[in-house]
């Protein structure tokens, strides 16, 4: 059966989970503690990072972007990169924005410092980095609100990987209770639409031992 190696709060893994859900593809999940550097896992992805998707008849596929583009090419309905070249370019631009800029300015400073640093044994979280992440997230939420108010979805008329990339990263931060939703009603309204989709519901059931989410995390009427 199709198998996804992942970590619970890894945004790239969450993006692949959402893409699989939107494509209505069955899969099972296996948590991979990447810091253990298992030889069997390194043989599947020498980078030692999740996500890795094992596809029947294909083998191991690594990297969140590569996996999502593979899924959209092999299982084209519904399309998550758009049907026209311009739509695909805009979706890819925004995926790069959230996987690059948002990651560096927000995710790494919050999820990375508060959660991954502990698992990797890299010492105490940096309060400077956390403060930066909490400050930076406002700009990104304003941008999301502007996109969502200008278009039907972030990249255009249809739901795309841009929405999934943004939601995957925000969901990980929201699990920590660090998204100031009340200050950004436009972004909150867009996120509520994502939360109500069937593909998103499994993410809302995630519970990390010793690190429960805030009460609003799984609430569709947050």
Tell me about this structure.
- It is a single chain.
- The protein is an alpha+beta fold and 222 residues long.
- The chain folds into two domains: 3-74, 3-Layer(aba) Sandwich (Glutaredoxin), CATH 3.40.30; 85-204, Glutathione S-transferase Yfyf (Class Pi), Chain A, domain 2 (Up-down Bundle), CATH 1.20.1050.
- It has eight helices and four strands.
- The protein has helices at residues 11-22, 39-44, 64-74, 85-120, 127-150, 161-175, 185-195, 201-204; strands at 3-6, 28-31, 52-55, 59-62.
- It has a four-stranded mixed sheet with strand order 2-1-3-4, covered by helices on one side.
- Helix 5 packs across helix 7.
- The mean pLDDT is 95.
Keywords, separated by commas or semicolons:
single chain; 222 residues; alpha+beta; Glutaredoxin; Glutathione S-transferase Yfyf (Class Pi), Chain A, domain 2; four-stranded mixed beta sheet
Briefly characterize the structure.
By secondary structure, the protein is of the alpha+beta class.
- Total of helices: 8
* Major sheet size, sense and barrel closure: 4 strands, mixed
Morphology call: globular
Which structural class do the helices and strands define?
alpha+beta
- Please give the alpha-carbon distance between the first and last residues: 35 Å
In CATH, the topology of the largest domain is named Glutathione S-transferase Yfyf (Class Pi), Chain A, domain 2
Question: How many strands?
Answer: 4
Average pLDDT number: 95
Order of helix and strand elements from N to C terminus: EHEHEEHHHHHH
- How much of the sequence lies in strands comes to 5-15%
- The CATH class of the largest domain, by name, is Mainly Alpha
Poorly predicted runs are none
Q: What is the architecture of the largest domain at the second tier of CATH?
A: Up-down Bundle
Helix content: 40-55%
**What Rg is obtained from the alpha carbons, in whole angstroms?**
17 Å
Strand order of the largest sheet: 2-1-3-4
Whole-number total of structural domains: 2
């Amino acid at each position: 059966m199709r198998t996804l190696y992942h970590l619970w709060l890894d945004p790239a893994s969450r993006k692949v989970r959402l893409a699989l859900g939107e494509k209505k593809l069955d899969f099972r999940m296996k948590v991979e503690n990447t810091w253990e550097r298992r030889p069997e896992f390194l043989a599947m992805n020498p980078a030692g990072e999740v996500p890795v998707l094992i596809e029947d008849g294909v083998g191991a596929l690594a990297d969140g972007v590569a996996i999502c583009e593979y899924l959209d090419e092999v299982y084209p309905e519904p399309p998550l990169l758009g049907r026209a070249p311009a739509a695909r370019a805009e979706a890819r631009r925004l995926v790069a924005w959230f996987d690059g800029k948002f990651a560096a300015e927000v995710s790494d400073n919050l999820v990375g410092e508060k959660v991954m640093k502990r698992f990797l044994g890299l010492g105490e979280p940096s309060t400077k980095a956390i403060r930066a992440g909490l400050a930076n997230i406002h700009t990104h939420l304003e941008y999301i609100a502007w996109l969502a108010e200008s278009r039907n979805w972030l990249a255009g008329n249809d739901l795309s990987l841009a929405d999934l990339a943004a939601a995957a990263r925000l969901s990980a931060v929201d699990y920590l209770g660090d998204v100031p939703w009340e200050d950004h009603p436009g972004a909150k309204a867009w996120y509520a639409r994502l939360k109500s989709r069937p593909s998103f519901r499994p993410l809302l059931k995630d519970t990390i031992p010793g690190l429960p989410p805030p009460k609003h995390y799984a609430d569709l009427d947050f």
